[in-house]
Amino acid sequence: MTVIELLASSPAVFTGTCLVLGLVVGSFLNVVIYRLPVMLERSWREQCAQTSGEAAAATVPAVGAAQRFNLVVPRSTCPACGAPIAARHNIPLISWVLLRGHCASCGEPISVRYPLVEALSGALCAAVAWKFGFGWQAFAALTLTWFLIALAFIDLDHQLLPDSLTLPLLWLGLLLSLWGGQAGVSPPPVDVRSSLIGAMAGYASLWSVYHLFRLLTG
Fold first, then answer.
1. Domain boundaries, the chain
2. pLDDT of 105-143, one tens digit each?
């Protein structure tokens, strides 16, 4: 029996696998939630500096190779002391419990947000696996779950829904509808026409709220 066959034939194994996968992805989502808004702000500042001219550009530090900052580089560090986090201290949930919620280097408390996101991701992934079983629906729902977790916490912290997260979801949904209709998968996804109407309605509703707020607040 192959791994794929085992996952497809055993709901318990598939659910457990998705639980572990959700914990691991949840650890990465913590990075996305913290770093993506910082990356966007840096990009906006650079664009503003370029638009304003050289004088304004001089006030914004250049981001060179030594200051490279993305979702992968640099390594995760303690927010309090800046010490790099060792791999053994970066195991989802387990490390936070073993360290009793404190940094191994400086002893400062580690925000409960980190294990909360990991636990939420793991629990939701397990629920998705148990609900849908092994198949395309589960993998689509897992992807949606991870994106929504990141969006929810970024919105909570910054009142921001980055296009780099929302637009991929839009296109993935439309592609899934197109693929499902052509492949004849069962149960079928929402048809392309309904997906397009939903996308336009969602955009129009947010656009309306934005402009209504502008009218009311001046």
1. 3-135
2. 898 999 999 999 999 999 999 999 999 999 888 999 999
Residues 81-92 have pLDDT tens digits of 888 888 888 899
If DSSP states are collapsed to H, E and C, what string results for the chain?
CCHHHHHHHCHHHHHHHHHHHHHHHHHHHHHHHHHHHHHHHHHHHHHHHHHHCHHHHCCCCCCCHHHCCCCCCCCCECCCCCCECCHHHCCCCHHHHHCCCECCCCCCECCCHHHHHHHHHHHHHHHHHHHHCCCHHHHHHHHHHHHHHHHHHHHHHHCCCCHHHHHHHHHHHHHHHHHHHHHCCCCCCCCHHHHHHHHHHHHHHHHHHHHHHHHHHC
Residue numbers of the chain with a pLDDT score lower than 70: 53-67, 180-189, 218
Question: Residue 85 is encoded by which pair of tokens?
Answer: 């986090």
8 Å CB contact between 153 and 39? no
Biggest alpha carbon–alpha carbon distance for the chain: 66
Task: Indicate the residue type of 51.
Answer: T
